[in-house]
Write the structure tokens for this entry.
Amino acid sequence: MPADPKLIRNFSIIAHIDHGKSTLADRILEFTGALSDREKQAQFLDKMDIERERGITIKAQTVRLEYKAKDGVVYRLHLIDTPGHVDFNYEVSRSLSACEGALLVVDASQGVEAQTVANVFLALDNNLEIIPVLNKIDLPSADVDRTKQEIEDVIGLDCDGAIAASAKSGVGIEEILEAVVARVPAPKGDPTAPLRALIFDSWYDSYRGAVVMVRVVDGTIRKGQKIQFMATGRDYELVEIGVFSPHATALQELGPGEVGFLAANIKSVVDTKIGDTVTDSVHPSTDALPGYKEVKPMVFAGIFPTDSAQYEDLRDALSKLHMNDAAFVFEPDTSEALGFGFRCGFLGLLHMEIIQERLEREYNLDLITTAPSVVYHCYMHDGTMKVIENPARLPMTNMMLRIEEPIFRMTVHVPSTYVGAVLALCQERRGEQKSIQYASAERVIITYDMPLSEVLFDFHDKLKSVSRGYASMDYELIGYRADDLIRLDMLVNGEALDALSVIVHRDKAFARGRDLAVKLKEIVPRQQYEVAIQASIGSKIIARTTVRAMRKDVTAKCYGGDISRKRKLLEKQKEGKKRMKMVGSVEIPQEAFLAILKID
Amino acid sequence: MKPIGVYIHFPWCLKKCPYCDFVSFAKDRADIDHAGYAEAVLAELALRRGELAGRPLRSVFFGGGTPSLWSPSELGRVLTAVLEAAGGGEGAEITVECNPTSLDEDRARALRDHGVNRLSVGVQGLDPARLKFLGRLHDPDGGLASVEAALRSGMPRVSADLIYGVAIGAEAPSPIESAAEVDRVAATGVTHVSAYSLTIEPGTQFGELARKGRLPIAPDDAVAEAFFAIEEKLQARGLVHYEISNYARSGDEAQHNLGYWRGTDYLGLGCAAYGTIGDAAGHAVRYRNVPDPARYAKAARDGDLAALVESEEPLDPETRLRERIMLGLRLRDGFDLEGSARELGISAWTADRRRAADRLIARGDLTLEGGHLRLPPHARVHADGITAALF
């Protein structure tokens, strides 16, 4: 039975990484009795190992809870979890639009972070009721009043009703739930209107196919119903409806305001666009829900197997990941240096790292990932425009009118002490200053327009280091802009390594070529023969370093008692070799291909 | 039945050398329980003698520690029992490792009289400062004198051990000097020389110093040059460079050590000894006896084999083949990869190994003839990397 919408509350949790979102979600599950004691392991909602290790949420998990409030009424709560990183901004915005309210969780010992601010603004755009929660009050360094003041200054949110809590020790959980019931508006929907449900998450299940998570806005969705996805125009028959509470539970129907999952023999998540509207095939709605957009990968990198025999395995693994993550795309690619592999597109660097880790861990592949590149627009003399995702494929300079690169608007929140250092960094990264605002006496918001390629090269790490970890940032694409860009190539023993080519600004080419040559010298191990590393622009060599030959590589003594230990040392060396790529007669370690990310 | 070797460990020295990673405890000769240790080894032999029954005995090697400290009659008692367990041990090579401070002509003669037919003398060097740095108790003259005494004693074969590539302070060792030292030792008339480049092993005094960055390390260029300079000198004296660190007059190669390098079985006896015994299906077990002399002696006396063994490592045929590669490539003559694999009941070539071999062959760093692998002389200084590639 669908619940009376008046008794439904849909809410999510907005928090910066490490501010305790997952722990709070677990406490809420425990408090409402949704988790058994056995399941009270830390962070129930973050299902993947990688999520647990990194302490971030990649795929949102959504649960239904029954909560008997102090007024004696049982409410149906849907806690809609959101991904926690800027790479997944669009998914966040769709998850938020499935809610009427949000808990803004701020670590009372740390204060407000830029990413949090960005998500609060997304929530406010979606007209969500926001309940500030000051978490980690158990920490000695917690300062509730200052944090409240900061939320009011930075976000402009009234903190009179803010709740002080400690998810870790279970303080304030009931108050939070009471606030959700009292302050988050009940969903408004028309039960008699044609069906409209918002898809805000999807994943691949090996038994059910692609499964989508929806929020019903109008009408009712029933098992067996013929449904249509409005953006793709595809029709399906609904096989299964259910909710997570937190374990999957099958249902017959979902009414207005309710949240649950649908399975309909959908082959791939590629067909389940986040933000799409589900309607009835026979009596379709005429208006799709607002806000849908196609998500495009922003960052591209080559992924190659170290052992060419793993090519097919890699393709299978990429296909499986793509089935579960439509934002990740790939197509076959070849490199002279690395052989056959794939060019892959990601939402951002974190997304790229996660995919790479999953390929290595879950599919046990040894991979080489090349330096990430942004997408360049090359305007040709013949009037055409070429989209270049791989620097090695950049057309000849004399065939192009200009090259344009993606520009991001960066918003950096930083304590006032570090403003100078941050400005210098942004300037050095070809940034164009837009504004400097004092959100409070201590907190400054700096806005810059900056080429994405400059953001990719460890901007975030640098930002953290010049601000002793206090600065945080957010960014969005604002367009493309032309600049004086050229290709920098790297040569190993005279052979160009196409996978190491990068596109850089002409003014920075010499410095970057020299830095790369120096870094590669550190990374490439000494080998039997001398290895020359060169940087070139066109046919002009601009830097050179040499990896000296290793003259001696032999165990002096090997008798009865030494054999096991020496063998194990060589076995370990062999494992290391597996992670290297032979280029000509030179063994190049994986990390060399990402050296560009590591230069100072 | 395949031949077998026997290794007997003697876990005491007058002083522990800072580079040495073998199990050895410093003790005055008078404080060592010579008879008690012999009894313990004999007790262990009684437990393991089944391994020797019916197999040709290739060699017996007394290593250490400093087995030349052991009373020759007690050592002789153990040797007699080993030969008896092996059905006589006709023609077996019987070696005792010696330090110059515990070897004179009388001691050598006594050992010869007990059946020892080969001495390996730890000369280590002829430079006073380097000998001191290496923690040796003897001086250059003492080293040479002990070798000459061994030769005079009528011992059938004498070998000398040397260490090169020893840096003192900022000064890199000179390859010419290293070669000259080795040549001078060879001039005594020994028919076997072991020349080791100094290896810094973890867990030793040198290892600790190196970890803290406080040990001078010879640059590998100088060590590689010394390797080839020594090779040139010794070859000119008619000593064949038959293993990476070993030279011998033809026919005087160390039979016991050839056993290790060819992957044949060896029985280990004594405190901290290693042994490796194979089965017919290509598997083997490598065991190690407890490294504490008191615990060892008690377990041996109690006849408790389980308490005697510190650890056991099962070796599957693939692992054994990797060991054959690692050890076989140390030999001048290389080894028969395909024959070894057949013997172990597995295939010699994985796709990866084949690719690596092709690459090495094309580069001139490996030869393959009828399934037989060998390193050409210039490539021997790169044996580790080449081995790892073929693993």
Observations:
- Chain B touches chain A through 49 residues (CB under 8 Å).
- The mean pLDDT of chain B is 96.
- The first helix of chain B runs from residue 34 to 48.
